[in-house]
Amino acid sequence: MLTDQFGRSINYLRLAIVDRCNLRCTYCMPENGLPWIKQNELMTDEEMLRICSVFTELGVDKIRITGGEPFVRKNSIGLIQSISQLAGLTDLSITTNGLLTEQYIPLLKKYGIKSVNLSLDTLDKERFFKITRRKSFDKVMKTLDGLLQYGLKVKINTVVMEGQNTEDIIPLVMLTKELPVDVRFIEEMPFNGGNNDISLKWNFAQIYNHIKNHFPEIQKIDDPKSSTSYNYKIPGFTGDVGIIAAYTRSFCGDCNRIRITPSGILRTCLYEGTGVNLKDEIRMGKTDEALKNIIISSIHKKPKDGWEAQKLSLTTSQIHQSMATIGG
Predict the structure, then answer these.
(1) Do you find a cis peptide bond into 163, omega within 30 degrees of 0?
(2) 10, 189, 198, 296: least CB-packed within 10 angstroms?
(3) What is the extent of the structural domain holding 184?
């Protein structure tokens, strides 16, 4: 097993397969998009598959496919199929905005996808357009229906933003009354692709208190090991509610995660500004054993938490880079 200097076992890889996205969410990127990674700087399917294989040989048994929007990448479903066949992999999941996902749901089920995280910041069509700058609400809801129809586990991810969607918190909680979904409210982070400061009024405590005011009977339930969310149950409801302290970073203590950006950079923390480029190492002819040694060395230096990582490496400009370039 991979372990860091604090004795934490690292078994979870988040692989961003593309930086591009077909939404322009206000909390992620400017209206006109970003300077996208050049094609020759992106990893090829073969390079991604090789990196995933090396990680599974090192004990990683969970991989999440992210972006950008992963289904924007050409032949993304073929890549997902190939990754799903790796020996030692027990949990393959996906994070998506749902715009292009519906057509692939039968194949996701076939390839053994364990769960799908669906980004959905509002249940109001007009607010959806204001937040995402795209009129695609109906496509996302059709994807949600399809995922549930095929019996995939669904987690809805909602970034809570003051003045934009706080009125959606309770309606989203109400989804869990009848539907087998987990709705997870996420603190807004500074990774917005610009220099826009964020308001942290709606932090973990504010979100929780707002929900509790409407549902006083809400109960804390056990959090899975290394969970990023604090999880709750409203008695009689089918699904669960979670809150992710993404900015205040109170979940870092038993972190088991690492990230690979679309250009191949290994980042041991979301708030880390640097990292070794595994794609470049592959293109220089490094063997799998050499790659393993690089990975082991990098993970051993994984910072204690997000605050330490930010202090050590993030510049002001990097703090405002987009989640699409980091890997969502």
Answers:
(1) no
(2) 296
(3) 2-326
